[in-house]
Amino acid sequence: MILKEREILNKTEINILISRLTRQLIENHNLFEESILIGVQPRGIFVANRLQQKLKELSGIDVTTGAIDTTFFRDDFRRKDMPLLPSVNNLDFSIENKRIILVDDVLFSGRTIRAAMDALMTFGRPTSIELLVLIDRRFTRNLPIEANYVGKYIDTLSSEKVEVMWKETDEIDKVILVKK
Amino acid sequence: MNSLSTKHLLGIENITPEDIQMIFQVADNFKDVINRPIKKVPTLRDITIANLFFENSTRTKLSFELAEKRLSADVVNFSAASSSVKKGETLIDTVNNILAMKVDMVVIRHPSPGAALFLSKHIDSVIINAGDGTHEHPTQALLDAYSIREKLGDVKGKNVVIVGDILHSRVAISNIHCLKKLGANVKVCGPLTLMPKHIESLGVEVETNLKKALEWCDVANMLRIQHERQEVKYFPSLKEYTLQYGLTQDLLDELDKEIVIMHPGPINRGVEISSEIADSNNSIILSQVENGVAIRMAVIYLLAGKI
């Protein structure tokens, strides 16, 4: 099997997208008094952290940021070879009556986001949940789920894979498309 | 590595230290789950589990049932006292009949050592041993070690003494295997009549003086005298046992350090442990019970992934 890689976004372009997304959030959430950023484990937390930093840079607001793990709420348990080992939840605050911005790196089938919403609801009843994604793979949805804020739309084949790499884990910020 | 090395949980003896660490890691997540406003996850909604209890139990049965329900599994309960076992049905027939009703997993407690292993060889289902006679009680050992890890940060290098009726205790055997695999030092303490032959071969030391054992240990796990398994007298009187091996405040006051007190339950207050100690701050008896649910959720979750 031959793997081909193509770069979709480099470090500068990711930074531009994060800035734009942050400004869109400010437009809708003002001072973020009742708003919370929640990254979807394991990869959404990096996007959430970037947004948090950028927001501080741009407006001095320190928005509450957490992480949600979807493992126990997924619908593909026992349909893969191995049980999935969970990541940690980082929600040491109440989400009751809060406006949640759910953050992930890539929106594909929509199943992870469905699981994340179910997982969130076990912590309380937020006023609303919005979805922010860095990459939206169009025309690939299995469920009627769309994002409120999108960094970049891309059109892909289902045999292709989008990989978002971060300085924290992969030494460089970039987004690549891998073709099988 | 993303799954357990075993299909069944029959005992601690045949699982690896990595398995134990994986169960602990997942149990951390489930402990978080059971402390949320909604204590339930939908993971096992397509799994049915039968709890077969051929022997009395309060804690273990409730704990397994809660763990299963909090994972959204369907649960059927069976206790030998009110079943066709009384009419002469064999173990395999009983279980096969239950499996014919499409059950995916069996939790079994049985008075005969090896009952869980026997079932795993003859029945096509995942088996979890919830105590087989005087052999093993793996989930108890896991929750005990998990509670030590929670209280002291790690199990490795800790000195743990298990006090009491070692001869009849499956909790002691499973605990020894589990603690040794995690790198703890283990002593057993009690009258020599209640020590199994060759217990040293498991890598533990025998100590007959409770005070010396307490001076050595970081954790004391107090066991109950299992009258129901004793056919002969192993010590002159319960009063004498209590004088020699009962844990009292006076004994603890004589130590120059704090030790953690554990008990797998059911407690015989005033026999192996005094009431004031059982209810004191050093006792983690109730955290053991809470952790039991999280540990059993982790074991069921990880084994269910292999069905």
Structure, briefly:
Chain A is an alpha/beta fold and 180 residues long.
Structural class based on helices, strands and sheet pairing of chain B = alpha/beta
The CATH homologous superfamily of the largest domain in chain B is named Aspartate/ornithine carbamoyltransferase
Order of helices and strands of chain B: HEHEHEHEHEHEEHEHHEHH
Task: Tell me how many strands of chain A there are.
Answer: 8
Termini separation of chain B comes to 17 Å
Number of helices of chain A: 4
Q: What's the order of the H and E elements of chain A? A: EHEHEEHEEEHE
Describe this protein with a few key phrases.
heterodimer; A: 180 residues; alpha/beta; Rossmann fold; five-stranded parallel sheet; three-stranded antiparallel sheet; 4 helices; 8 strands; B: 307 residues; 2 domains; four-stranded parallel sheet; 11 helices; 9 strands; 38% helix; globular
Structural write-up:
- The complex is a heterodimer of chains A (180) and B (307).
- Chain A is built from four helices and eight strands, in the order E-H-E-H-E-E-H-E-E-E-H-E.
- By secondary structure, chain A is an alpha/beta fold.
- Chain A has a domain at 11-29 and 37-73 and 88-156: Rossmann fold (3-Layer(aba) Sandwich).
- Chain B has two domains: 17-137 and 289-304, Rossmann fold; 138-284, 3-Layer(aba) Sandwich (Rossmann fold), CATH 3.40.50.
- Helices cover 38% and strands 15% of the residues of chain B.
- Chain B has eleven helices and nine strands.
- Chain B has helices at 17-33, 59-70, 91-99, 115-122, 138-152, 170-181, 210-216, 238-245, 249-253, 275-278, 285-304; strands at 48-53, 74-79, 105-110, 126-132, 159-163, 185-189, 205-207, 219-222, 260-262.
- In chain B, strand 5 (159-163), helix 6 and strand 6 (185-189) form a beta-alpha-beta unit.
- The mean pLDDT of chain B is 92.
- The interface between A and B is medium-sized, with 19 and 25 residues.
